[in-house]
Records
---
Amino acid sequence: MTDLERTVIDNIKDFRKIGGLEELLNCLENINYLDESKLKSYLELYDIQVLYQKTGYLLSHYKEKMQLSNDFFKYCKRKIEKSTRYLTEKSNDDNYYNNEWKLVVPNNLFSITNQSGDKLV
């Protein structure tokens, strides 16, 4: 058994296993609410710096829709140390460094389109 918050954290952690980044973004787009206390408890179970970075970065783009507070993102940032990480394993010239999350991410990540052709965020 799992709940939505655990599923979100697990999918952010291992998005390559669920169909890739585009599929993860399609799934996140359809979520209207997440319980912050549950998200925090699942993040703490893993206690992996890059997971805090990825979660904070990705969910910040859905902050209002998912009804997440600034406190949740402050919590994630407190768990980030000095090292830079990558959102995806691929390192190429089409990435940029997000200083807020100390994360290298693909350019235009949130302009990926889903199969129906609708723009994501």
---
Amino acid sequence: MKKIKIVSGLMALAMSVSVMGITASAADPVKVTVGKETVQPGESFSVDVDLSSVASSGLTSIDFAISYDASVISISDVTLGAAGNTGASSQEGEYGDTVFGWKDTGSQIVVVWSTGLEDSNYWVKNGTFVTITGKANASAKAGDASALTVVAVDRAAYPGGAANSDIVFSAVAADNTVTNYGATGVAGEVKIAGGTTTEADWGDADCNGSVDVLDAVMLARVSSEDTGTGITAQGKLNADVTHDDSIKADDLAKLLKYLAGKLTKDDLAK
């Protein structure tokens, strides 16, 4: 694992410009989309982390994490994709090895990228920023899944300070103007292949033996990427009534039709 050795001044610049008297502005957020893959227990996986909605000039400072479930997967490596491999490292001289770094904390994959180059040709643009590789744990069971969610790095902002709450996507122009973009994340997933659901269980997202409005509420929360639902791996299987290995608005719409009497249990199983 490559340890993070990023020059701290650049990240501090992005997060604390008001203290330094540098002009800062906010702009539309960067969209961060994490890929999905289904694998067998013990099998390797590879998912891309893609950036979109990046301003045409690009980004000079990036600091975020992807949370994961260590009981389901382990992380092997994080490598730069086409959008992250800008050539900045070769232009930074003695600081070249500080441009990109990553760290596995056991619950988060921390990713940091930063350059002081003024030439925007070396800044991060739209596309695949990094690729995450790893393995599904041999002990993982069919239907288990690890969400891959874009979050702020779990660390104190300063010694003795409050917990960090910032996802950093920013650009520092030649005139020291800083633009902070923030981020919107689309969670990915590594899912363990297999698992079964009987006809009676289709739609039973909370696994309580019946299909009712509470299942619709849970499915709505899951499809909107609410990570606090407590839905189990079996619940996710039951909720996938469109049978496309994902839970989204289409599943909710189909379940609501069932609850309204327009579909039968047999329809949910198809």
---
Amino acid sequence: MTTPSLPVIRELVRCYQAFDAVAGAHIRSMGLTAPQFDIIATLGNTPGMRFKELGEKTLCTKGTLSGIVDRLAEKGLVRRVASPTDGRSQIVQLTAAGEKVFAQTFPAQIRYMDELLAGVDAERMSRLQQELHYLRGILEEKGKP
């Protein structure tokens, strides 16, 4: 069965799979998993975030976030501190070692992605961004309860 949306959905999934494979391999070459990199990149240049905010800003599901943070804490890259305004919540912060990993891996990943996409001209890059933004807006609007 073919529908108007099926080719777009297939291409979107294939594009994400290709991106995930290429980006993930580069991230693993730097000693991190993709979810670990996502958390470090999100916490970089911030004073830290509550778990809820970190979950909203990363691609990590709520169920896996705590385990990923635990593994990063075991590596000495993040720490949990009590929130000064809410005794029930914790803030996740990069440690000095985590800041160093962020300073090394984030720019390296951006450079790597820029190299991969270097053949795409600025006008097309802008159109791609606009089209993806448009599609995300439709999906988010339709996905609201």
